[in-house]
Amino acid sequence: ITTLDLHSNRIDNAGAAKVAVFLTTNATLRQLILDENHGIESEGTKEIALALLQNSSLEVLSLKSCSVGAKGAERFATVLSQNTTLKELNLCGNVDIGDDAVELISRGLKINSSLLKLDLSSCGIGDEGCSSL
């Protein structure tokens, strides 16, 4: 399997943790879509992000309109500084990400050489967050 689309289900933090375990052992998945699973909050997002530190196949991750929050998004700063396979990250519609998390993400982007597309639309980013990018 190379694409797994689980958007608009009832996945919560516990389900996200199970997805994360799957990611640590899977070597074929290229695209994972978890859009509009509002039960995936910061804790679930952190688990998925940490799994990406071990995964070497995923190229596209979409968490559009979940409940990622600032703390969940901050974990992607570490991921972006170490992961070399992720090409697209969609965090659009997670209105509580905000400036502070985007500043940390921008630090990871300075080190990252693989990410080609980052969608942060409708994430509650103001002038400070924009200037950090």
In percent terms, what proportion of residues is strand?
5-15%
Helix/strand class: alpha/beta
Low-confidence stretches: none
Number of helices: 5
The portion of residues assigned to helices is 40-55%
Mean pLDDT: 96
What's the topology here?
Elements (H helix, E strand, L loop, with lengths): L2 E3 L7 H13 L5 E3 L8 H10 L8 E3 L6 H14 L5 E3 L7 H14 L5 E3 L7 H6 L1
Parallel strand pairs: 1-2, 2-3, 3-4, 4-5
Describe the fold and architecture.
With 133 residues, this protein is of the alpha/beta class. The protein has five helices and five strands, in the order βαβαβαβαβα. The protein has helices at residues 13-25, 42-51, 69-82, 98-111, 127-132; strands at residues 3-5, 31-33, 60-62, 88-90, 117-119. The protein has a five-stranded parallel sheet with strand order 1-2-3-4-5, with no helix packed on it. Helix 4 (98-111) links the parallel strand 4 (88-90) and strand 5. 36% of the residues are buried. The mean pLDDT is 96.
Question: What is the gist of this entry?
Answer:
The protein has 5 helices and 5 strands. With 133 residues, it is of the alpha/beta class.
Main attributes of the structure:
133 residues; 5 helices; alpha/beta; single chain; five-stranded parallel β-sheet
